[in-house]
Amino acid sequence: MAEALAVWRTHGERSAIHVAERIGALAINGDIAGVERWQQIAARLEPLLAARQTHQ
């Protein structure tokens, strides 16, 4: 959860885009472990983004 929060604090509204770009770059380079890790971060980021949207 800490990593997802750090991504949110750093990238704000672009967090989902940043995560997708990282996953894509890692996939292109064949880094399966990296892809899996960033997918975990994405899963933890989703509730943060959803909560943010309900409070706007």
What does this protein look like?
The chain has 56 residues and is mostly helical. It is built from three helices and no strands. It has one domain. It has helices at 2-11, 15-28, 32-54.
Number of strands: 0
> Cα distance, first to last residue?
22 Å
H/E topology pattern = HHH
Radius of gyration: 11 Å
Largest sheet features: none
Unreliable residue stretches: none
List key phrases describing it.
56 residues, mainly alpha, elongated
Q: Helices and strands in order, then pairings?
A:
Layout: H1 2-11, H2 15-28, H3 32-54
Helix pairs in contact: 1-3, 2-3
Pfam family, one: DUF6961
InterPro entries: DUF6961
Summarize it:
With 56 residues, this protein is mostly helical. Helices cover 84% and strands 0% of the residues. The chain has one domain (2-54).
